[in-house]
Write a structure and sequence with these properties.
The structure holds two protein chains of two kinds.
Chain A (H helix, E strand, L loop, with lengths): L11 H6 L2 H4 L15 H34 L1 E2 L16 H30 L7 E5 L2 E5 L2 E7 L2 E6 L8 H4 L10 E4 L1 E5 L4 E7 L4 E3 L8 E3 L5 E5 L5 E6 L12 E7 L1 H12 L9 H8 L12 H13 L34 E2 L4 E2 L9 H9 L1 H4 L23 H11 L8 H7 L3
Parallel strand pairs in A: 4-8, 7-13
Antiparallel strand pairs in A: 2-3, 4-5, 5-6, 8-11, 9-10, 12-13, 14-15
Helix pairs in contact in A: 3-4, 8-11, 9-11
Chain B lengths: L14 H5 L14 H6 L3 H30 L9 H36 L7 H24 L24 H29 L12 H33 L13 H32 L8 H14 L15 H13 L1 H15 L4 E2 L2 H24 L1 H7 L3 H31 L5 H27 L16 H31 L40 H6 E3 L5 E3 L3 H4 L16 H17 L2 H20 L31 H10 L1
Antiparallel strand pairs in B: 2-3
Helix pairs in contact in B: 3-4, 3-5, 3-16, 4-5, 4-6, 4-8, 4-14, 5-6, 5-19, 6-7, 6-19, 7-8, 7-9, 8-11, 8-12, 8-14, 9-11, 11-12, 12-14, 12-15, 14-15, 15-16, 19-20
The chains are: A alpha+beta, B mainly alpha.
Amino acid sequence: MSHLFNVRGRQAGLVVALGLLLAGCASDAELDTLEPRSGVADDIYALVLPVFIVAGVVLVLVCGGVLWLGLKNRVKTYEGDDEFPAQVSHNNTLEIAWTAIPAVVMVIIAVATSVVHFAINDIDEANAMTLEVQGESIEWEPTIVVVGQQWWWEYRYYLDGEQITHEVLADPRNPPPADIVTSGQFAIPTGQEVELIITSRDVIHSHWIPALNGKKDAVPGRFAPWKIEADEPGLYFGQCTEFCGLSHSRMRMQTLALTPADFQIWIDEQMAPATFDDELQPYVDAVRAGETAAVGDDASAALRGLDVFNTQCASCHLVNGFNDLDYDGAEVVSGSAPDLTHLMSRTTFAGGILDLYNEDGSVNVDDLARWIRDPAEVKDNYADELPDGELPRGMPDRNLTERQIDDVIAFLTTLGPDASAEMIQATEVE
Amino acid sequence: MAVTEDPLALTTGDAAIVERPLGVLTRPQGGNGWRDWLSTVDHKKIGIMYGVAAMFFFIVGGIEALLIRVQLAAPNGSVLSADIYNQVFTMHGVTMIFLFIMPLAAAFANYLIPLQIGARDVAFPRLNALSFWVWIGGAIFLNSSWIVGGGGADCGWFCYSPNSGLAFSPSHGVDFYAIGLLITGIASLVSSANLIVTVLNMRAPGMTLFRMPVLTWMLLVTQFLLLFALPVITVALFLLLFDRLFGAQFFNPEMGADPLLWQHLFWIFGHPEVYIIILPSFGIISEIIPTFSRKPIFGYSFMVFSGIAIGFMGWGVWAHHMFVSGIGPLSVWAFSMSTMFIAVPTGVKILNWLATMWGGKLRFTTAMLFAVGTVAMFTIGGLSGVTHALAPADTQQTDTYYIIAHFHYVIFGGGVLGLMGGMYFWWPKVFGHMLNETWGKLHFWTMLIGFNLTFGPMHILGLQGMSRRIDTYSPGFGFEFWNLVASIGSFVIALSVIFFFFNVWKSRRDAPNLPAPGPDPWDARSLEWMIPSPTPEHNFDEIPVIESDDEWWHRKYGYDENHNVVRVATVEEVAQDGSATGVHLPAPSFWPLVLAAGLPLIGYGLIFNLWLCVLGGLLTGLGMYAWALEPVDDPDADHDHGHDDHHDDDDDDTEGAEAEMADVSAGDEEA
């Protein structure tokens, strides 16, 4: 991915210095911790690199010493050998020295560590940027609420000009309505320190975008402050790193770093409710008016799909502008399901594990169909055949017919705007 | 004693069995039949049982490890389902830590501590038997969840709340985990108290604390760590069980609980646990390296004090497992600092081992190879440990394969390799024959190569961003190659373990045709080498009087006027021949087994049917009651039973009155 986003290659020289340790770090390792792409990640890298080198030197000395002593002082047997080596049992000067020298080295490392530690934990509270939100200019202190649940990430943006705080959030299961809600993929402006407020709706997860900073756990009942920043536009990959149950390995996310101008465009797009074409609009209006809407057999696939969505999906998934009036959370343990209002503006779905588009820019209908047909087949969950009264964890199998699946995909693909070709390219790993 | 006349005791027509009826209420007599293993209170037999059981669970945990590596050998692995994978990696960790390394270290502690301090047994022999039976009951209970519990625990060995709660782990696996660890915890706790008292009270005359071998010192520190760490995990497990079984809300965030409570409790136990695992191995190689360098350990007091320092500092670093859990920057900073400085006493040990080898005459027996391998491999683990003591770096490294690489270099490289070396070193003392050196060296080299092939690449995988505990990974992140290498390495380790078991079998088969190893096959330094191999039941004919550290070596060697080492006596002249008879030994008992048998029943009862708890409680209660009423000495003992004769010992124990078993047994009674 990296060449598309004009990423620096300046660490190349240092990487070579690390020799064997890094020999296996392929250039296509999107999660690589040794390819920092932000100031904070750089700081961590610059701290750990000299320590790797010191550790490497110590390692060579000790292992070399073992080998050298082994070869030099080796005897086959003590049989018939009456000569003993000098029975040196201690040497206080030497021992104090090799207690003190590591201690001094550790003090130096400790000082450097302290500096970096407090720097990466210091979240700048005065870096507001100006955004146009619904015709009004606001000062936005870049803050994104990150909510983990089994097994996907939700990102909530509050753009009413008020600073979102832990106190306001209080209960991550019932957070105040956000201006933008996205999942699996979230946008940040480049060159800007962005505060994440990380929490969880069920078990502990851990949010990690290696190129942009280290990780932070999402703990239910807690709101962990953490920051990320990106120097350059790009798509940065992440993976949940705290064991969170069955599909822990299938819980990923991506950060979309955009220039401030592009970020403004993204905000505008995401703020808008979903729009429907002339054929769908009457159905939407009817549902919003609380009337029953019928769909004839001669209706288009998208309209039939909207009908399927309304009866099968809308109790969990929100599409702003369609079912937001009576939407009351998802009927799952976490109480939340991905917001699909602008689904096609993202390039990944199913908790960041499947691409929404093919490489050629067409919609990845195959994976969408596979997912809707039987989610547990694609991503293990606890959503089907539940004991009485137990809520699902993960997306249940709705037993749709093949035609219904095709229809619902036809509807979902209307939930634009479509992702850019550049973004689609960047989503491809390999 | 009335209970011995129980009418339920079985009798048959067989004369031999009539003489010793098979009935738990009849006082066992000792000897070598299978019933004697069930009733033994001999620290050596208990040590052997610990070792055998630990090696069994090594195979179990190893198979689990191979399953993990097969699954991860290639992207999108489909050998195991996600559910099974989570169970397998959880049980791999639990098995290797609680059912392999800890009991294997316990095997060495049980067998060697009394020998190294010149004692006839541990302070409380029946409690010692109780520890073993409770532990094996807990171990079987834990693993029985595969069969009767619908699968193993699936919450990771760390079992973080709230994922471990009923809402997120509804299967019985976590119940088995919690109860199983509670039971094995009882075993370790009892054992630690027993061994602490043994070391403090049962040393031979002249065996001051600072004449004790480094191994005994390290084991002593380990027992103190166990004594203080286990109550913490016990509390945590009780809270978890109350949440799961009785609807308590200790860890339910919905009710305002803080999930980090579990993490603090778990790691306050969990970090000292690392030293519980590693210190016995440090002790073992501190015996092996001097022996095969023909030099005393370099800087004995630095070695001992750095071990003690590690023991103390080990309590102040637990939150380095929680750097990214959200505990606040200042806490993270404090634990980052304390963690860095625990590297100092550890580094001292490594340099002292090297200094012991410096100028020595190094004889690379298999035991020495393992000991030296331990030094090198542990160094790698220690150095990677320093890199994540840097809290900022840890935010990138934690919960990736880099951590897996780190702790396997510590636990396997630093712990298991050392314990393997210990097996080769003390095998002749325990079984009376040597392990084959050729096969031993093959075992060492394949294990070393396999180990590095498996865990070396995991450093790279972790830095490449591969998360821990993932049951599969996608192609395209650059994880493919090194995962394949690691999986191949794991099978090389498996091969090395097969070599070891083959060696055990072959050496036993060949032993009759080889010269007996004698009391001191390695020209070693500590007291256990002055008595015959295998160790006689009564350990020492006479309790030795200790005049220096490395007492046994100083009985063999002295210095001439030029301060050169000269032999002053042959082994035959100064070794004991094991011929003493009528030494007073503690009498065997079935009650520890009976008491222990009730505990897993209580566990099953808590999970399946509370009536089983009543049954288990009655059994345990009966065991305790009968134990309390059972005299330490068996008044009906068969007087013709060799070493077990309890009534004419007064003339034999001329030395070391405090080591007499009469005193020991009195202590046992009070306990």
